[in-house]
Design brief:
Blueprint lengths: L1 E4 L1 H4 L11 H11 L5 H16 L11 E4 L6
Antiparallel strand pairs: 1-2
Length: 74
């Protein structure tokens, strides 16, 4: 599986000042929910990032996530 995302997620504020979710924070969320199927996984990433940023002005940019998955030939 490959996941691509825009800077809107990683630039979301998670605290006062310049505290941002950043790639490490996004990866931490992803690892916690890695067992979810693709669509709920992406929805959970976005919803969690939005929740963390809600008290600090929301996400800084628009958000896009692309999750690609393919099966090996059998």
């Amino acid at each position: 599986a490959v996941m691509l995302f825009t800077d809107g997620l990683v630039e979301g504020r998670v605290g006062p000042g310049s505290d941002r979710l950043d790639e490490d924070g996004l990866l931490e969320i992803a690892r916690k929910h890695a067992d979810l199927p693709a669509e709920p996984f992406v929805d959970t990433l976005i919803r969690t990032a939005q929740g963390l940023a809600a008290d600090w002005g929301g996400l800084a940019d628009d958000v896009a996530v692309l999750h690609l998955e393919w099966n090996s030939p059998t």
